[in-house]
Specification:
The protein has 20 helices and 23 strands. By secondary structure, it is of the alpha+beta class. A hairpin with a 3-residue loop joins strand 1 and strand 2. The longest helix is centred in the last third of the chain and has 25 residues. It is globular, with a radius of gyration of 23 Å.
């Protein structure tokens, strides 16, 4: 009988399940369900645009439907499939997405008296209500514990664990007091599948702990009680109720409980992996290794790569460098952009009110690099890397009375490409090798214009991952690895057997790259001028340089005709 692995991916709007054959990585079944609550699965508050929460009950509803759907599809597509042949389960989620739980590890937002309290729900990764707490934590850590910040880019984000918990403490003592503990969504889902009813017994993953909760064995785990006491004594009192250790993906969170096995139609007792963030799982599914940078391009973008622990170093402005957070025995590196798909969606759906991106993409492709005279900053949801500042906003320079909506659409795509290049240059400046760039996610699969622009702007080939649901597929790799004896587990060996070749490679075009080199210089001027408080270089040249470049490009294009 063939063996199969199940990967579960909990994204921003839906849960997905992938079933893959362990021998060759062929995906034989897929299922998904959008979260039923809120707007697109997100609970919002019209009085606070920074708030983004999710109903924890939605995760379990969507999980069940997605797995059953994947099993049904696998039964139809693969003669050698049997649910009993699923040998392991991997889990990835968004993050940092912490939720408060009670003494029985039940999500507080699902319990009587808290169902309508937004603070008792899961605090989704893109919730930015804790800006003040993040800034205060950053300031105090710089003075008292600078090593804490060095490994998360020198700035703590409002998207992350401690800032969100502290904000809950500051604004809703009822919820904070009722919480026995707090758990990352990436850790909570595996704990539910394993039937763990004591929050302190949850096996936490090094990925969420190291990248968002300031966990490191360098300083003995989580931030010390004395530092948390400086923030608020209640945080120091919470610390013993959180966790003491974290493990890599070679360690199981536990075994699938009988109750969940029956609910999903699987064998009880199969291993369930510790949680990992979605984009880190996507990196696994795209074959990440030293020299390979994986870009998960979705509502936001996350860049992940790894380097040997012996070469591990802190990188200013990069979201996190953590021990064994992606590949065991390697330093995991994460960077990213807070608005990419969301940025394009804002322009097309919110501003223009159009039904889709197809016509705009075609029109934008007809206008070459520099031809519009436009330049944008991609900060509509703040800057995640390298400035790490959620108070920054978007900017569009160069528009005239002749500017078209398609030209603006292209400028927004280009701005995200310039942001991607800024990250790439920061990584390489600090000795992180990048020899290959592999992109996953729906945008990478569907938008050839964006992929070509990214290749042209960076001057590097960009490959499209060989699997559609890279995050869920990466989680399945974890499940497959856990089926092996503990002493011989090696997820790099699993990758070699299961990860498919890339589908397509976009090569940079020399003429476009030359124009984008000039535009990137102007982008950098805007980036530093609006993003760095100590930047003194004037910006009066930017508009005029954009016009000159526009006229030169149009003249060349006219001459070619």
């Amino acid at each position: 009988m063939s063996s199969f692995a199940l990967g579960l991916d909990f994204g921003t709007g839906a849960a997905r399940a992938v079933i893959a054959r362990v021998a060759d990585g062929e995906v034989v079944g897929m299922g998904s369900l959008a979260y039923p609550s809120g707007e697109g699965g997100v609970l919002l508050d019209a009085r606070n645009v920074l708030l983004a929460r999710q109903n924890p009950a939605d995760y379990l509803i969507a999980l069940t439907a997605a797995v059953r759907g994947a099993i049904n599809q696998a039964r139809e597509s693969a003669r050698d499939f049997d649910p009993a042949a699923i040998v392991g389960v991997g889990v990835d989620t968004t993050g940092s997405s912490p939720l408060p739980v009670d003494a029985k590890n039940r999500a507080l937002g699902t319990q009587a008296g808290f169902e309508k309290d937004l603070d008792a729900q899961c605090w989704l990764w893109k919730d930015h209500t804790s800006i003040e707490e993040a800034e205060a934590l950053t300031a105090r850590a710089r003075a008292l514990r600078p090593d804490y910040l060095a490994w998360v880019g020198d700035t703590y984000s409002s998207e992350w664990w401690w800032a969100k918990i502290w904000h809950c403490l500051a604004t809703n003592r009822k919820v904070f007091g009722a919480a026995k503990s707090w758990v990352e969504l990436a850790d909570w889902i595996p704990s539910q599948l394993c039937g763990i009813e004591d929050p302190h017994q949850i096996r936490r993953g090094l990925c969420p702990a190291g990248h968002k909760a300031l966990f490191s064995r360098r300083w003995g785990g989580l931030p010390d009680a004395a530092f948390l006491e400086v923030l608020d004594p209640a945080l120091a009192q919470l610390r013993p109720r959180l966790f003491d250790d974290a493990v890599d993906v070679h360690v199981a969170a536990g075994a699938l409980s009988a109750a969940w096995a029956e609910r999903l139609g699987l064998r009880p007792g199969i291993p369930v992996g510790v949680g990992i963030f979605d984009v880190h799982a996507g990196a696994l599914g795209c074959g990440v290794r030293p020299g390979v940078l994986v870009k998960a391009i979705g509502t936001s973008t996350c860049d992940c790569t790894v380097m040997p622990l012996a070469a591990m170093r802190a990188i200013p402005g990069v979201c996190g460098v953590a021990d064994s957070s992606i590949l065991p025995g390697m330093a995991g590196i994460e960077a990213g952009q807070s608005a990419v798909g969301d940025l394009f969606g804002w322009w097309v759906d919110t501003v223009l009110g159009e039904a889709g991106h197809g016509a705009l993409t075609r029109d934008a492709a007809a206008s070459g690099p520099g031809a519009s005279g436009l330049l944008a900053l991609d900060w509509n949801n703040g800057n995640r890397t390298v400035l790490v500042d959620t108070r920054l906003t978007g900017l569009l320079v160069g528009q005239t009375l002749q500017t078209t909506k398609a030209e603006i659409y292209r400028a927004l795509i280009e701005s995200s490409a310039f942001g991607a290049r800024t990250i790439l240059e920061r990584l390489t400046a600090y000795g992180v090798p990048v020899e290959t760039i592999v992109c996953c996610g729906g945008i990478a699969q569907k938008n050839a214009l964006l992929m070509q622009i990214y290749a042209d702007v960076t001057g590097r080939p960009h490959a499209v991952a060989g699997v559609d649901e890279a995050c869920a597929f990466g989680a399945a790799l974890i499940g497959a690895t856990l089926a092996e004896p503990a002493a011989t587990r090696d997820i790099t060996r699993t990758q070699a057997a299961m990860v498919p070749a890339v589908k397509q490679v976009y090569e940079p075009r020399a003429d476009a790259s030359q124009i984008y080199e000039s535009l990137f210089g102007l982008y950098t001027d805007l980036h530093d001028g609006f993003g760095r408080a100590n930047h003194a270089k004037p910006l009066a040249h930017v508009m005029k340089d954009l016009m000159a470049l526009r006229d030169r490009v149009r003249h060349v294009a006219k001459s070619d005709v």
